[in-house]
Amino acid sequence: xxxxxxxxxxxxxxxxxxxxxxxxxxxxxxxxxxxxxxxxxxxxxxxxxxxxxxxxxxxxxxxxxxxxxxxxxxxxxxxxxxxxxxxxxxxxxxxxxxxxxxxxxxxxxxxxxxxxxxxxxxxxxxxxxxxxxxxxxxxxxxxxxxxxxxxxxxxxxxxxxxxxxxxxxxxxxxxxxxxxxxxxxxxxxxxxxxxxxxxxxxxxxxxxxxxxxxxxxxxxxxxxxxxxxxxxxxxxxxxxxxxxxxxxxxxxxxxxxxxxxxxxxxxxxxxxxxxxxxxxxxxxxxxxxxxxxxxxxxxxxxxxxxxxxxxxxxxxxxxxxxxxxxxxxxxxxxxxxxxxxxxxxxxxxxxxxxxxxxxxxxxxxxxxxxxxxxxxxxxxxxxxxxxxxxxxxxxxxx
Length: 398
Fold this sequence. Notes:
single chain, Heat Shock Protein 90, five-stranded mixed β-sheet
């Protein structure tokens, strides 16, 4: 069986102090209404003891404590009376409002006011003396005053608790926002790093494999030339990225993001790297030059072309790699096609991160992305990457 809840330490101190104080007042003969009491004077100690015991429950069982206190207060009216009993009762009223249920906190002040009014009116009717009003005021002082004090303290306590919870929720939301921002920034950096360096490293891997596998001086020299060119350009890209990461808004201006004006340079580099693999590259730029592109859209288009050319260098069979750009008032369409099939000669390994990065870039701008093998009009299978990017910046996701 589960016994009574263990009383709070402060409740034990209040009970003991109230009992000792009441005993001291009784010993000094300070009774509240000795002439009206029945029986011996020591009977006033019984309500005092019961009231002190009820104090042990003021925090754990406030409604029960108040009910016991009301019974003890009623019994005290038939004895010589004790000021300690009255003081303990006012504390029980206060505690019932402060620690009780919300319903009790609303009900007790209303009941105490109605009881005060009823006692005052009854005494006026019965005794028909003005002193009845004074008795009513004393009754209200014992019941109404502690009840409304409890209401005031509880209101402030609930407000402080609500403010604490709001502060915790705000801190939690701020931490979530910070974590999401860090995750998004890491993903952006990963995409930038992959797109900037992967094509150079892929070309280096392909041509170094060719130089090692084909024992011809001319082939080795051409391969080493391509390797050096891609190494230098890759190093420059890495330095640019490191500069962007180190820049803190000081005197150095960060390098500008690449634009579609540099697509020709990308194709020239791809022609050099893919010549030994039998790859040719063509650009069909059918953009409306009168419509400017938002910077995020232009950067995403450039990176998609860059990654698609890198994938073609690694995986495409001999043939033509085509890059098409079409722009209207609402959409920029980027389409890259390359021969699909078995490829002779050395190949660079792929991780699939490039396709994931392209898809993420398009999704962040609210566009549509598709990649995979398709059948061309002549019945030849090709690998197609197609991205439709909204030109309106308002479509971008936060």
